[in-house]
Amino acid sequence: MSFRHQYVIGDLQGCYAAYLQLLKTLDFDPAQDKLWFAGDLVARGEDSLNTLRHVKVLCEQGAAATVLGNHDLNLIAVWRGAAKLKNKDKTAPIFAADDCDELLEWLRRQPILAYPDEHTVLVHAGIPPHWSIEAAAGYAQQLEAQLQSNLNQLDQLLPNLYSKEADEWHAGIEGFTKMRAIANYFTRMRLCKQDGSLEFSFSAGLDEAMPTDFLPWFEWQVPRTRKILFGHWAALKGEIDLPHARALDGGCVWGNYLLAYRLGDGKVFTSSAQCPSP
């Protein structure tokens, strides 16, 4: 299907009012346009429940698509009892809603990686330098299969997706360790070494001192067949635009704005409304 316009939007984080304002700014028409979301649909904003409902409806209409972010995975884990609801997340209304199970069943079936057009690839946090985009797509499918499996298998997976320490990626990695590493690359990565070693504590901007031998994943120059569109790193404020990578998290939930990147010409639009302070 051809569309009038396609837009890739950074982390919504439940900032429902800003999201609706952004759609007005875009003059979005679900009959002609398509939205792609970079994950983290929910969490710190003022209305995660209605944000999730709205995105779900658009996706079911074929007018939107989303990839999963770390906050989305955490929401699924809380739903299944594998994680505790965090006080700073404003997602409790989702679990009290009559359509909670319907929403979470839908969410867990969304992809980790998507191709918005022939020139781009969309993930939440990024793709590490030691993976080609083709390899990354294969790893994403492995994690997706686990997330979309029967509930018994999902319940075995979810507690094993969390660790304070990053796993070392190696040729023999397998099982839950492999699934956790894949989830960490796609949904938590900011800094890494050239071999893909991750560092989880750094979340500041690029002008701050970084741990020795670590760089932002997108600063390791490796050939890419597509431009990587990503969110997750709010401190970048969506200001990174390289030939091979484009940041889209404008940090709306931290007092900034939502960003929408128009495929085709790369024009960026911002919400006219900010998210209330978390």
Structural write-up:
The chain has 278 residues and is of the alpha/beta class. 29% of the residues lie in helices and 13% in strands. It has eight helices and twelve strands. It has helices at residues 16-26, 48-60, 70-79, 92-96, 100-107, 133-147, 151-157, 175-187, and strands spanning 6-9, 34-37, 64-66, 120-122, 191-192, 198-199, 215-216, 227-230, 241-242, 245-247, 259-262, 268-270. Strands 3-2-1-11-12 form a five-stranded mixed sheet. Strands 4-8-10-9 form a four-stranded mixed sheet, with no helix packed on it. It has a three-stranded antiparallel sheet with strand order 6-5-7, with no helix packed on it. The mean pLDDT is 95.
Q: Which helices and strands, and how do they pair?
A:
Blueprint: E1 6-9, H1 16-26, E2 34-37, H2 48-60, E3 64-66, H3 70-79, H4 92-96, H5 100-107, E4 120-122, H6 133-147, H7 151-157, H8 175-187, E5 191-192, E6 198-199, E7 215-216, E8 227-230, E9 241-242, E10 245-247, E11 259-262, E12 268-270
Parallel strand pairs: 1-2, 2-3, 4-8, 8-10
Antiparallel strand pairs: 1-11, 5-6, 5-7, 9-10, 11-12
Helix pairs in contact: 6-8
